[in-house]
């Protein structure tokens, strides 16, 4: 998943036979009768236009990256890793452009027989989110111009441009197996398209505020979305009918707009969400039960997640805290303090490690078992706005307000 603050998705190949792409589309269109059965620095203050401190403490660190992509002309706010080709990544920015590029290859360098660097133009506003299809063959870019564009990865060629209501796209997510993409807008709408044909498969309508984040369930048979501002709801949608099958809203759930949501990879229905006032809730999207509201943050929660290996959860906030929660007792297990606000968080695919991106230009690796910072990754000269990890967990990709995207080795 890309910029759209959604949860990680993972499948057990031994338990469920994967459907071919055509079968996935047929299933979501209602042709599956079995549907419904049971992811040492120098500190300086940066002031905003109004003269007030915006919370950025720029830390000058040694450049730990082994690759730096400098193709963008403005802030890089979205990054994604190809799930099949570990050397292929993508980045999107405030320059209204996205790029497909190869790790270890200089920008636009010609290399016979290999994918080069492709500038993906056509958006007229910031590319706020992007992501690769499960097969790795397509890339979708979501723009604040209201367009979702689908690209051929091998050639960097535009396949089709998908349109919705015209509202700015805030996030996108791919079906965990097929060529189906979902995106949410700032004007309350969610669209599901067949990326192979460009057809609108479904429109999910019901939120009364910006749809700030969303994802497919791990089995791909439902879509989960959350609403920002006055909406403050979590909704579960049936992709076949477009109907909302479950809504969680009101006490004891969130009291302010929800920024982020993540689902447990086991598919049992556990969800964690974070809101603009610092609230964190753990709920179940199958039963609609709210297990608890977790207090501890003093500012907006920007990212949340549930560990796939331990009964732990984590939340990252603009208050500079990464909080670790015990899912059994719903109590705080630890607090990982940062020198400045956290913008994003990503989990290691197999280990109890969390990586945070911060306004000070650094990214950090935390061991959730001990709450200690294992490593700090330096190199950016401005705030890190997005972070993702390679499928094998060996490399990090970051995008920054300094206009670069950098690749780091998780372990030196």
Description of the structure:
This protein is mainly beta and 412 residues long. The strands form nine sheets. It has a four-stranded antiparallel sheet, with no helix packed on it. A four-stranded antiparallel sheet has the order 4-5-6-7, with no helix packed on it. Strand 9 and strand 10 form a beta hairpin. It contains one helix and 34 strands. It has one domain: YVTN repeat-like/Quinoprotein amine dehydrogenase (Methylamine Dehydrogenase, Chain H), CATH 2.130.10. It is globular.
Ends apart, CA distance between termini: 26 Å
Strand order of the largest sheet: 3-34-33-32
Query: How many strands, what sense, and barrel or not for the largest sheet?
Result: 4 strands, antiparallel
Number of domains: 1
CATH class: Mainly Beta
Shape: globular
Classified in CATH, the superfamily is: YVTN repeat-like/Quinoprotein amine dehydrogenase
Region (Disordered): 1-56
Biased composition (Acidic residues): 11-53
Subcellular location: Cytoplasm
Main location: cytoplasm
In short:
The chain has 412 residues and is mainly beta.
Question: How would you summarize the topology of this molecule?
Answer:
Elements: H1 21-28, E1 45-47, E2 53-57, E3 67-69, E4 76-81, E5 88-93, E6 98-102, E7 118-120, E8 127-132, E9 138-143, E10 147-152, E11 157-163, E12 169-174, E13 180-185, E14 189-194, E15 200-205, E16 211-216, E17 223-227, E18 233-237, E19 244-249, E20 258-263, E21 270-275, E22 280-284, E23 290-294, E24 301-306, E25 312-317, E26 321-326, E27 331-337, E28 342-347, E29 353-358, E30 363-367, E31 372-377, E32 384-389, E33 395-400, E34 405-409
Antiparallel strand pairs: 1-2, 3-34, 4-5, 5-6, 6-7, 8-9, 9-10, 10-11, 12-13, 13-14, 14-15, 16-17, 17-18, 18-19, 20-21, 21-22, 22-23, 24-25, 25-26, 26-27, 28-29, 29-30, 30-31, 32-33, 33-34
